[in-house]
Structures are given as C-alpha cells and as structure tokens.
Design a protein that fits this description.
mainly beta; 5-stranded antiparallel beta sheet; 16 strands; globular
C-alpha cells in the first residue's frame, strides 16, 4: 500500500500488512513488525456471555510484537518509487474530522521498485504466490554489488544455517531469509552465475548484462 499520508511517518513510502506482521519500506531501511497472535472467543455485540464454538465464533488478537530493521547503509535516501501493476481497488482513509487530513485513491500494487538505491542498483519488492515477501536487487551492467550494505538491528540474534539461509532470532518465533538466488536473464534463459551473499562473491557473471539477487523473507 502506498503511503499518501495515512501513515503519520513521512519516511514510510510503502507498506505491506498481513496476519503475521507488517513490513514498512522507508527511506534507508526496511522495518519488519512481527506479530505474536492467538484466537480468542468473540465477544457478543449484545454484551452477553462468550461462547466457544466454531472458528467463526473466534477473533484474532495480538499478544505482542517484535520489530527489527534492515538498514541500507550509504544508500540514496530519496529514491524514486515506481509502482508496478496495481490492483483495481483503491482505498480511502477518513481520519479525523478535518477533511484536509483525509486521503483518497490510495493504490495497492502487486510490486514496487525503488530506483537507484545505490548507483545503478534498484530494489524491487513483491509478494510470491504463497504470500512470502521477495525482493530483488537489480544491478545494471557494470554496477558494483559491493556497495549494497544491509545492516540488521533490533533482532535477538542472527544465524546462518548450513544451507545458507539467514535466521533472524526474535522473542516470537524466528523468521527466515532464504539464501538469495542470483541470475541474469539472457535471450535464451536464466543464467546462474554462482554468486552467494554468504561467502566471497565469485565474479563469474557477464558484466554486460543486468544481475538479480533474490532473497525471500518468510514469516
């Protein structure tokens, strides 16, 4: 969802919300808010006694949250935001009694791109078919991937497992970033250059083609 003022923090450019948590795309960082939730009996509107029955008699309540952030050190703090294909529905936010604070025609896009976060390097974010958040570092031919600096703050721990996935320790159940896939698109097919972020990168890719690094975030 694009932020046209309905979120008070002006640094928030775009955000995703789900049952498991929220992701806020901000200037210079990505902020994750993980939810610890449970199902509780729904309170009747007439104020009567609660009844335990089917799933429709319950509602989800948040017991706690844990926030952590990925800071993009030395990044461009004013990247151009380009939205991809948008959903047909637009949203209106009537906040307070002053019409000057109301926001209308807010778009929710299927993907978004922050252009030139680093010189010649864009950041594209989108949801996968199973609801996970995926983001691509899209690098122009000749761009220096070493300029991408991702610094984690707010978590209880960081562990790289034996498969190369990054586990982020939280007070809630941990979340995970799958090992990034790296590839270039040629006229024939995807070409995998063997680049990994968990070890020294191998410069075996073609500098005349765009390079994509694609980690996936799992709640």
């Amino acid at each position: 969802m694009e932020n046209k003022g309905q979120v008070a923090n002006s640094d928030v450019l775009y955000y995703y919300e789900s049952v498991k948590g929220s992701v806020y795309i901000e200037r210079g960082r990505i902020r994750f808010v993980a939810n610890d939730d449970t199902l509780i009996a729904r309170r009747p509107l007439d104020g009567g006694a609660q009844q335990v029955g089917s799933a429709s008699d319950k509602e989800r309540a948040i017991k706690g949250t844990h926030t952590f952030s990925i800071y993009m050190d030395f990044a461009n703090l004013n990247p151009k935001l380009r939205l991809g294909e948008s959903f047909s529905t637009k949203f209106n936010y009537i906040l307070g009694e002053d019409p000057n604070g109301w926001v209308s025609d807010v778009r929710a896009a299927k993907d978004m791109t922050l252009e030139d976060v680093y010189p010649g390097i864009d950041l594209r974010l989108y949801s996968t078919s199973d609801g996970q958040l995926e983001f691509d570092w899209v690098m122009d031919a000749g761009a220096d991937y070493n300029k991408v600096k991702m610094r984690f703050e707010g978590q209880d721990g960081l562990i790289i497992d034996d498969k190369g996935n990054l586990n982020v320790g939280l007070r809630l159940p941990d979340v995970k970033f799958s090992i990034p896939e790296s590839y270039q698109v040629t006229t024939k097919a995807k070409c995998r250059p063997g680049l990994r972020l968990t070890s020294r990168a191998k410069k075996s890719f073609h500098l005349r083609r765009r390079l994509k690094l694609t980690p996936v975030f799992h709640w």
